[in-house]
């Protein structure tokens, strides 16, 4: 049996829309992107959605919005020490300094009890990540943010469909950034989207994705809020060459939006299939504890069914790499569980952190992996994975 890590669903509707866009030659950001944004906002339950070219850009642009709202270059943003590296890259690329806080091994998310100690006069935002779709503890995080007057930007790249304490993930923070990369629950192949309830944030996002100019729909010019364009814009000036802020080139195109619209049509189907796989694995994986552990779904949350994480226990007597190799030979594809950005990613060395500073993140990085639970596999494949793990343990534990 082969269990691939990911898949993509390209529906007939997507193919039809892609053709329509190609035939019309209107392929850059246009009506499909706008339709995708409207539908995505509705899905999450937020007022606005701004589609972008990647989840990384979604993180970067959401952060860059803060310059219109009092932040300065070189200010600090608190993030978990373990995430896909894009989270840390985004903070730096937006011009902020990442301040890392260790994670909890059992949730894989930022440890909220360690956040306050990391706050300084320069802190402007907290950016929790809902890793593997498991909601970060947003009630605690929002309370800290409120107390210290900080913005909250959710990195919800892996958390499509997640719910925390009766409220959708993506609606807890000031903004939430999603990835629509091919490995994710809804995909546009490459893509990202930021959701927010604040129209003034959405205006700045639309400007930022297009080099910092006014957006073509003129919405930014007309809006009030924090967008100061109207004061500086001279009557008669060419709007296309008036750049209000330092921007990016991060638009989604019509072909990507077409694939996304196709995906949205079957979103419920994809989500329930993935949920079924995830719950089956959760229910049956406890037999391997404490040699092998995973996250748990609490009664107050629904984990976004992104993937199934496994963390090898401290006294297991075998390594993650040995198990991963065994599974690979059984046809089961997996990926390691990311790195502690400040202490295990060479690109972050210049920040001066030392191995050992983030013990939980480093443990998970050295001992964790995840497998796909996507819509092209079912209970049969999940059972095969569990049987393979059992076989491995018989010989190795
Ligand atoms: C937590 C997290 N943040 C950001 C990203 C970046 O998304 P993208 O690959 O679409 O740029 C990812 C990608 O998977 C992610 O997992």
Your description of this structure?
- The chain has 397 residues and is an alpha/beta fold.
- The protein has two domains: 12-263, Aspartate Aminotransferase, domain 2, CATH 3.40.640.10; 267-396, Aspartate Aminotransferase, domain 1 (Alpha-Beta Complex).
- The chain has 14 helices and 16 strands.
- The chain has helices at residues 12-24, 31-44, 55-64, 86-93, 138-148, 199-208, 219-222, 229-232, 254-265, 267-285, 320-329, 341-344, 359-367, 379-396, and strands spanning 48-52, 76-80, 82-83, 97-101, 123-126, 151-155, 163-164, 167-168, 175-179, 192-196, 292-293, 301-302, 307-312, 334-336, 339-340, 368-372.
- Strands 1-10-9-6-5-2-4 form a seven-stranded mixed beta sheet, with helices on both faces.
- A hairpin with a 2-residue loop joins strand 7 and strand 8.
- Helix 2 (31-44) runs parallel beside helix 9 (254-265).
- It starts with 11 loop residues before the first helix and ends with a helix.
- The model is unreliable at 216-229 (pLDDT under 50).
- Pyridoxal-5'-phosphate binds next to helix 3 and helix 4.
């Amino acid at each position: 049996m082969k269990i691939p890590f990911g898949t993509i669903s390209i529906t007939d509707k997507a193919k039809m829309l892609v053709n329509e866009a190609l035939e019309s030659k209107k392929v850059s950001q246009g009506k499909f992107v706008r339709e995708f944004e409207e539908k995505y906002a509705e899905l999450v339950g937020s007022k606005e959605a701004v589609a972008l070219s990647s989840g990384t850009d979604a993180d970067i642009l959401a952060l860059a919005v803060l310059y219109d709202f009092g932040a300065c270059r070189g200010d600090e943003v608190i993030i978990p020490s373990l995430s896909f590296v894009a989270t840390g890259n985004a903070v730096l690329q937006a011009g902020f300094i990442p301040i890392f806080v260790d994670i909890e091994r059992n949730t894989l998310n930022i440890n909220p009890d360690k956040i306050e100690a990391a706050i300084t006069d320069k802190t402007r935002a907290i950016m929790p990540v809902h890793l593997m779709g498991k909601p970060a503890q947003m009630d605690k995080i929002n309370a800290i943010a409120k107390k210290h007057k900080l913005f909250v930007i959710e990195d919800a790249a892996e958390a499509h469909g997640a719910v925390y304490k009766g409220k959708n993930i993506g609606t807890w923070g000031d903004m939430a950034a999603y990835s629509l990369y091919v490995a994710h629950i809804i995909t546009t192949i490459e893509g990202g989207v930021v959701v927010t309830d604040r129209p003034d944030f959405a205006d700045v996002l639309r400007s930022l994705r297009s080099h910092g100019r006014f957006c073509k729909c003129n919405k930014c010019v007309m809006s009030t809020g924090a967008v100061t364009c109207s004061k500086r814009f001279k009557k008669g000036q060419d709007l296309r060459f008036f750049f209000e802020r330092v921007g990016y080139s991060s638009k989604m195109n019509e072909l990507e939006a077409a694939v996304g619209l196709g995906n949205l049509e079957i979103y419920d189907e994809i989500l329930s299939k993935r949920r079924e796989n995830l719950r089956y694995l959760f229910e049956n994986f406890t037999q391997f504890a404490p040699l092998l552990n995973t996250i748990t779904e609490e009664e107050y949350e629904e984990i976004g069914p992104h993937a199934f994480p496994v963390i090898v226990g401290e006294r297991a007597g075998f390594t993650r790499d040995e198990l991963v190799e065994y599974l690979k030979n059984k046809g089961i594809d997996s990926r390691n569980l990311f790195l502690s950005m400040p202490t295990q990613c060479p690109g972050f060395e210049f920040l001066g952190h030392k191995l050992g500073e983030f013990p939980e993140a480093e443990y998970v990085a050295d001992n964790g992996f995840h497998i796909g639970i996507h819509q092209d596999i079912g209970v049969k494949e999940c059972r095969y994975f569990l049987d393979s793990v059992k076989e491995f343990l018989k010989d190795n534990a």
